[in-house]
Predict the 3D structure of the following.
Amino acid sequence: MSRDVLQINQGSLYPALHRLEQQGWLKAQAGQTASGREAKFYALTAAGRKQLECELESWDRLSTAIGLVVREAE
Amino acid sequence: MKRHLDRFRLRIRSLVAGDKVDARMKDELDVHIEEQVDNYIAGGMDPREARLAAMRDFGPVDRIEEECRDTRRVALVENLLLDLRYSFRSLVAQPLLLAAAATSIAVAIGANTTIFGLATSLLMVTPTAREPERLAHIRMRSGSHVSHGSGAICRERRACRPDWVQRRGEHQLARRRPFGQPVAALRHREFLRRAWCADGDGPRLQRE
């Protein structure tokens, strides 16, 4: 996803998922993987989708601002 | 609103069924690793190699489990319960220490209650009598002493109020205090003891 710029352990995904679930932004459902194992599948809740939009917007604003400042220095 | 309900439900579940939630979390991580192993084997890796590679990709399992646990935010309550259990057990293991601690706390509470009770009733409570500064303290010759409103004792004895009571009362009215001990009673105790004694048939003045 990050074209291998960011190296993150696969396992780090789970604390993040659990945190989002605890916040009520994700909902977990039991299901089966392609190989037939019992697994949890996460989906965004309505509140989660709203929060995502909020966060994306604020991230866009911040990264644009930082980009502008860095370019200015050239 | 629904979100807060969900959050509340999850907290409760983590508290009452923590072990189950924990086991399910471990299963979830296991499934991830197993799937990854399968992928590598399907890609032509030998099983042992595949498992090592999957574990490497996943990262430190114990730390990740711990981080997942921390997201539940019930560690505070759980640790509190553990601490309570631990202290209970160590107290039971040392009954002498328990007895000493309990006794000293009991003595301290008892002493404080007594002292503050006394201080409150002596210093802070407004007397309930209508004109507290006119109360008199009368000591009987036999050694017992009776605290009486001066009016009451006169009615009881069928005697009219003695002159000095009247005068003292008027005198005190001028220097009345807002609240506190009936001043007259303490101030004039000595005077009363000498001047006002009672024997069998009724009060009379004793000359010294």
Summary: Chain B has ten helices and four strands. The radius of gyration of chain B is 41 Å.
